[in-house]
Amino acid sequence: MNESVGAELLKNILHSPRLPSLPAVALEVLDLAQRPDVGIDSLARTIGRDPALASKVLRTANSSFYAQHRAVTTLPQAVMLLGLNSVRSLALGFSLVDSLRRSEGRGFDYGRFWQHSLYSAVGARALAARARVVEPEEAFLGGLLHGIGVLAMNEVLGSRYEAMMAQRDEARRLEEAEQTAFGLTHTLVGEALSEQWHLPPQLSACIRWYREPEEAEVSVLPLVRTVSAGVDIADLLTDRRAAVALQRYRERSAPWFGLTDAAAEQVVHTAQEACASMAQLFDLAPAPESDVATVLLRANEALLELSLQSAEETIRAERQNRNLALDATTDALTGIANRRRFDQFLDEQVRAAIDQDQPLSLLFLDLDHFKRLNDTHGHVAGDRMLTQVAAALRSEVRVADLLARYGGEEFCVVMPNAGAAAATAAAERLRQAVEQVTVNQVDGNPIGTTVSVGVVTFVHDRHESAVELLADADAALYVAKRAGRNQVSVGAGRRAA
User: Fold this and answer.
1) Where are the alpha helices (DSSP H) in 168-291?
2) Could you tell me which residues come within 8 angstroms of residue 40 by beta carbon, excluding any fewer than 6 positions away?
3) What are the Cα distances from residue 372, in Å, to 440, 451, 482?
4) 213 DSSP 8-state letter
5) At residue 95, what are phi and psi to the nearest 5 degrees?
6) Cβ contact 452:363 at 8 Å
7) pLDDT given at position 451
8) What is the pLDDT of residues 289-348, one digit of tens each?
9) By CB atoms within 10 Å of each CB, which of 10, 91, 105, 175 scores lowest?
10) Are the CB atoms for 411 and 365 separated by under 8 Å?
11) Cα–chain center distance at 151
């Protein structure tokens, strides 16, 4: 889908009446919290205009999540003890979750979505508090809002978006499926929506880049990284491809936050302990409780299985590549090297003979009267004869030699480090081996064949290329044919003048 279609759809989403606006109280809190001269009383009065929001802020201030040493009974106390950033994050988070929450009647699981978002927020906050790279409350809010683009697309596109989600292969990234189906992604929609709501730029960056944190600007990179790792923690705790999440989280913990594996796992423990209480404050069902050690053990076992599967796939791919390479250089009928492999090998050996002064000989073989055999007994018998001859030749050549089917009924043997005497003796053994080959006809009577062989040995001042050596071997073969066939002819090693 092209970019213009995606741009038009984005415009429709942002102006859709189905998309809820940011609550008035949340906007005021957001505005006040960004003013350098805002007072505690002003912020408390604004929150107090929404009784439900005020109640949640007070409950949170007294919860184990913030572990205050004394009871908090008033909003000014809550603002003073929690701090402006904490109160802003809580007020905005509570307002957004309440305003964007929908019934469970449709196909989209809003409860699961917000559960994962909350776990991402708590994970990001715990990580920020431990690593001290960013403000924990900024990380909490970034984690809570990172997926709002998914909500927006689902709310406006409805069944179309739900169908895309249902059809998506779980191994395929959500953004790829969205881009294919609609021409834009939830990260782009979320960024545009956050800008429309006038959220702080650093939160927009978290929404836009949490999937690809290294693409974020340097100024917001630590925060985006923290939110992205918080999403990994949420994936782990809610069992969303936990093995992949654990691997990614471990790979990031040391370079991004300077944490050892043990410290990174402790962050997961801290996050899980806080998730249940925060889920209650947001009126969300917590994920099924399980011991973090058990969660990590299961994820490690799954990760090991994935590693084994990956290793098996690598071995399978390497084997397939080897087979493809073998197919590309092997004659399909006889199983020996084909013309392509022969040309390559002969060229390599001629260069070695020239550069390193190594002996080299070449045998050119042609079955005698093979056309007559095909015409008389049929091509099936001819193919069987070629296969049997190739097997006989293979049994006689050295390991270092290359036996190849040159074409039709012609064969070649390249003999590195073999002089004229050794090559001539080998050619005679091959001739005799072929003479013993027989193929039974349909009536049971055997068919035999013979072979003529041309032999040539590389000579420095006579052969400058593989083409010239092959030409001399072919000329020697022609001499053997003309002399009556079924014999070996040794070439003079001279090119025609």
Assistant:
1) 174-182, 186-196, 201-209, 221-237, 242-257, 261-281
2) 76, 79, 80, 84
3) 16, 14, 17
4) G
5) -65, -45
6) no
7) 95
8) 555 556 555 555 555 555 656 566 666 766 666 656 556 788 889 999 999 999 999 999
9) 105
10) yes
11) 28
Q: How far is C-alpha 343 from the chain's CA centre?
A: 37
User: Given CA atoms 242, 244, 248, 251 in this order, what sign does their dihedral have?
Assistant: positive
pLDDT of residue 495: 39
pLDDT tens digits along 97-156: 776 665 544 567 788 888 888 889 999 999 999 998 898 888 998 998 899 899 888 888
In sequence order, the 6+-apart residues with CB closer than 8 A to the CB of 452 are 365, 366, 368, 431, 477, 480, 481, 485, 486, 487, 488, 489
Q: H or E element: which one contains 407?
A: strand 402-407
- pLDDT of 326: 58
Please, how many CA atoms are within 13 Å of residue 36, restricted to the half-sphere of its CB? 0
- 446: β partners: 440
CB of 166 within 8 A of CB of 202? no
Q: Span 36-63, mean pLDDT?
A: 78
